[in-house]
Amino acid sequence: MGASCSNCSCTNKETETKTEIEILESQGVFHKEALGAEAPSELIQKAKKYATQIIKIQSLWRGHRDRKIVSHLLKMLRTNSKYFTLEEARETLSSKVTKSTIREERPAYRFKTGAVYTGQWVGGFRDGHGAQIWPDGARYEGQWKDNKANGYGKFWHIDGDIYEGEWKDDKANGKGVYKQTSGAMYDGEWKDDVQEGYGKEHWADGSHYEGYYKSGKKHGFGSYVWKDGSKYVGQWIDNKINGAGVYTWYDGRRYEGEWLNGCMNGRGIYTWKDGRKYEGEYKNDKKHGKGVYSWADGRKYDGEWRDGKQDGIGIIEDCNENKKKGEWKSGRRVKWIED
């Protein structure tokens, strides 16, 4: 069912971890003296371990996104074109009972298409409660008006998927529930066979989304929770994370800030469970612009960044509030600058 972030957002964890490795490897003696008990090599190995886990998680998300976005929506659209046809409506309207205005039960009627309708009629119109079965086994049972599925009804797809809810002119319109045999489910609002308005999606692996849709895509405010407990709460545009939002990872890391097409972009705050924090500007998932990277013991780098690396003028401060100004290029210090 409709779901997605872009490829860009699916890699932000990896680039964030790589940045951490670069910071640890590039600070030099000034940084090493302030590290305390845990050596840089140990921290680097931990960061690399996180990177491996992150890539696995996000590859699962990419596959999940690609599979879920198309399956049920295509089936709903095919429902209208394949099963509810004008040929069947024209066939009964040309019958001799067209002029009748009384709703009545009649024997089962077999269309030239092979579909069989059993239920109520008004003249040549299927009208009232009725059930229709198609030759391939697909079935609709519910309310009809003016020869179309109108009102409340249930449709069984040939593969076992089921839609139950409100209909208008042979299409899912209003509130309805779509259940897939895989265990996935959408419960919410529909317009012309696609998700539109507020709804909830659940998948068999435990992941779920709750929020708004437009034209079958996530659009507006919504929250997505992955099976590992990672969570995003915020704005979506055209099925991508866009605008202001908060992404929380299963290991305690958290980003709160601006997004563009699934990427951290603009101002934001990225925090780690151990107390580290970056507050500043991002571009395409990377630190870019001005920002402050700080540790729980008070150490920090306050300066310029480019493509996820320190680049430009910055100030290093140790846990005793001693400060040194320097210039960095591509993550490596070029020189110290004396005031």
From TrEMBL:
CC terms in the record's Gene Ontology section: cytosol
Assigned keywords, A-Z: Repeat
Pfam families for this protein: MORN (PF02493)
SMART domains: MORN
Superkingdom, taxonomy of origin: Eukaryota
Database matches in InterPro entries: MORN (IPR003409)
Name of the protein described by the UniProt record: MORN repeat protein
